[in-house]
Amino acid sequence: MKSVIFHIDVNSAYLSWEAVYRLQHGETLDLRTIPSAVGGDPVKRHGIILAKSHAAKPYKIQTGESLMAAYQKCPHLKVVPPRYDLYLRSSNAMVELISEYSDAIQRYSIDECFVDFTHMVKLYGDPFSTAFIIKERIKKELGFTVSIGISSNKLLAKVASDLKKPDGITTLFPEEIAEKMWPLPVGDLFMVGRATYPKLNALGIETIGDLANYDVEILKSTLKSQGVLIWHYANGIETSPVKKSNHLAIKSIGNSTTMPFDIDTTKEAHLMILSLCEMVGMRLRDSGYLTRLVAVHFKTHTFNSTGHQRKFDTPTDHTRDIYEEACALFDVLWDGTPLRHIGVRVSEFCENDFVQLHIFNEKDTQKNRKLDAVIDTLRARFEPKTIIRGSFINSGIKPMTGGVGEDDFPLMSSIL
DNA sequence: TCTGGGGTCCTAGGACCC
DNA sequence: TCTGGGGTCCTAGGACCC
Fold it and tell me: What percent of chain A is predicted at pLDDT more than 90?
């Protein structure tokens, strides 16, 4: 049976969701009708554009550029701060609606998903008409628009959904590749990013078609395995299955932040690391895994970045263990240069079916577990602020730093 | 383009073993 | 013993995605 895959992509997701929410709560102005953007707060030095309205496009506002640069291009740009909890709820509502049509849904990011429609064709008939119904229902019932790509694999469906924006449906079946995909600039291809693009250009490759018809051996020798991968993509060859999201295993958990002010003392740095470890630790325990590896990375005020990582002798999910290891790594690495950004990440998980006790300090381990459990419960039931370690009081550093909590679901993978 | 925060995967080089 | 080759593990860094 020939596969039928949908890729569904929310148009200007954060901005659309923000606009819908505001309209539902009494605002009369629809952010989508004016030059507007969702972005960070420059005072806190988180100042970049995360999403922009269609009406901001003529001003050449780019996702990822600084608010300052955006204001220079468009002084009357309306910028609103992000609200990730709202976006997660909006995303969930969309997936719930789509799940009425197929249970084979892979959430790829907060605003994108793949749907395997292969076995639904019998039930619903023509995929294009069903995609149309889904798109119109999302618009009518949830208030925002999506673009849908339809093909026989995930890569082609993803390329297709990008072809008609906003509010479009496009097919890109293998027989349509030469006509619809090959004329596109090679930088539009999935997995051809900022670094690869100039390398391909140097080989005389400008369009996806150029890449598709290039000698794969030469690509392999210059770009290694990635060269082979993108050559396959350019030819529409991709066979990964739509993995139901609840089957995706999470590989790492990390939090990081750009601080409102440069950090230049060990004491402050450690406090910042503790704040990040609180969030990482809580998310780790929530996942049910133990970690075997902790990594610390930072960026200096001059934007130099480095990191360090180290394995645990015994896997753990204690905030305290992660924190102590992270500080030890940090102390080895840091030479006192003022810091702009700090991050902590844990990975190499193993199952936590049984509690693996340290033979020599069993009591400590038990005590740590209980403490973490009590804190997690209180924070879940009330507010994260319920429990604050004394060291944070009057420090100017939040007791917990980083996002993606409760409704955490595994997103993304660099390969489809 | 003065540049966020969440991820995954790949590669290179050194240590160590046989 | 100045010297081979293969395998594995570890770490740092860089590529890509949204």
Answer: 80
Give the tens place of pLDDT for each residue, A250-271: 999 999 999 999 999 999 999 9
Q: How many residues does chain A have?
A: 416
DSSP E strand boundaries for A239-283: 252-263
CATH of the domain at A223: 1.10.150.20
Sign of the dihedral defined by the CA atoms of residues A78, A84, A89, A91, in that order = positive
The catalytically annotated residue of A112, A238, A278, A325 is: A112
Lowest mean pLDDT among A147-151, A161-165, A187-191, A249-253: A249-253
pTM (predicted TM-score): 0.92
Sheet holding A339-351, edge to edge: A252-263, A339-351, A289-300, A305-316
Which residues put CB within 7 Å of chain B, the nucleic strand? A 40, 42, 45-48, 50, 62, 64-69, 109, 194, 224-226, 250-258, 279, 283, 303, 340-341, 343, 345, 347, 402-404, 410-415
**Residue-wise pLDDT tens digits, A181-222:** 999 999 999 999 999 999 999 999 999 999 999 999 999 999
* A120 CA, C4 C1': Å apart: 60
A416 assigned to some structural domain: no
pLDDT confidence of residue A413: 64
Residue A239, in any domain of the structure? no
Backbone phi, then psi, for A37, in 5-degree steps? Answer: -155, 155
Question: Is there a catalytic annotation at residue A351?
Answer: no
A320 φ, ψ (degrees, to nearest 5): -60, -50
What's the CATH code of the domain at A130?
3.30.70.270
